[in-house]
Write a structure and sequence with these properties.
By secondary structure, this protein is mostly helical. The chain is 50% helix and 0% strand.
Amino acid sequence: MSDDGLKKQDMQFPEPAQMDDAARAAQKRRNMWLGLALLGFVILIALTTFVRLSGSDDNQTNFYYNMNQTGQVEAPTLPPGMSAEQAAPPANLSADPVAPDEAAAEEEIPEQ
């Protein structure tokens, strides 16, 4: 930091303003209302988020491929124009995931 021609005693912070009792009471009152307004805003956002998430279709039907987790017996209806082949999971998607070590071990075995 450069001196900019200031003397050592000029580089110190100024003394804070001294407020009288009425100004201090007004400041506390403003801070209280500001805090209450912020708390109300946080509660409003939390309630809005809760209501939107609890009423979403994703929560009720879960994901299309995870039908067994929600206890559904039959698949949900497909959108208009979509065939069953288009909605089927990819062929390389298996129910039992393969650990990366097992897959690498299978690839490294040379054929004889």
